[in-house]
Amino acid sequence: MFVRMENAHAFFRFYPVVTILVVLHIVIWFMFFLRIPIAEPLWEKMIGFNAAIKKGEYWRFVTPLILHVRFEHMVINSISLILFGPALENMLGKGKFLILYIGSGIFANVATFFLLPAMYSHAGASGSIFGLFGMYGYLATFRRDIIEAQHARLLFAVLCVSLFIAFTAPDANMAAHLFGFLGGGIIAPFISSHLHRQRPFLIR
């Protein structure tokens, strides 16, 4: 379920949403790293900033989901998306997967807005990534016809490790992590009623 055997062409064909999101993570990070002239004003308009949201810049609930400050943060989120996104994109379809991913991220950023100080700023896809775990948690608990026991145990272990890393990181946005997970769990029952066990792709 989480082992990827596809080549790059097949991966893009089977999981276009995951692929596009990962490419956005990488390209946008390099835009800021290379200090392309347009990057700085874009960053100022896209980063999550509670004070700006309070003034009505509500797009900042969404735009931080494709921004990352640190290279290692971008890499960890991108690898997590590559590992855990394809099975859900396959099961849900592109539209519902996007609803889960973006909806969980918005849920996390709204929680950040209400729970953290007005001058707090943030960026990263962690809320959306934890939303995927929230979806898996719902499936492992209520749809055992979808998630096998060994995969449920693996997901639980990955979630525990991810939470430990988040809690120990000095600048981690714990509100985003926890409420992203909760958001994924809340969205899950509304988009999973007609799911069937993932069918493996046969690569020739």
| Rg result | 17 Å
Cα(first) to Cα(last) distance is 18 Å
Shape: globular
Spatial strand order of the main sheet: 1-2
Helix coverage percent: 55-70%
Catalogue the unreliable spans: 199-204
Mean pLDDT over all positions: 89
How many helical stretches?
Answer: 9
The largest pleated sheet is described as: 2 strands, antiparallel
Strand-pairing-aware structural class: mainly alpha
Order of helices and strands: HHHEHHHEHHH
What percentage of amino acids are in beta strands?
Answer: under 5%
Number of strands: 2
Outline the structure in words.
By secondary structure, this protein is mainly alpha-helical. It is 67% helix and 2% strand. The chain is built from nine helices and two strands; from the N terminus they run αααβαααβααα. Strands 1-2 form a two-stranded antiparallel ribbon. Helix 5 crosses helix 6 (94-115) and helix 5 (71-92) runs parallel beside helix 7 (126-142). The two termini are 18 Å apart. The model is unreliable at 199-204 (pLDDT under 50).
Could you list some keywords that capture this structure?
204 residues, mainly alpha, 2 strands
Chain-wise SSE layout:
Elements: H1 8-14, H2 16-33, H3 39-46, E1 48-49, H4 50-54, H5 71-92, H6 94-115, E2 121-122, H7 126-142, H8 149-168, H9 174-191
Antiparallel strand pairs: 1-2
Helix pairs in contact: 1-2, 2-5, 5-6, 5-7, 6-7, 6-9, 7-8, 7-9
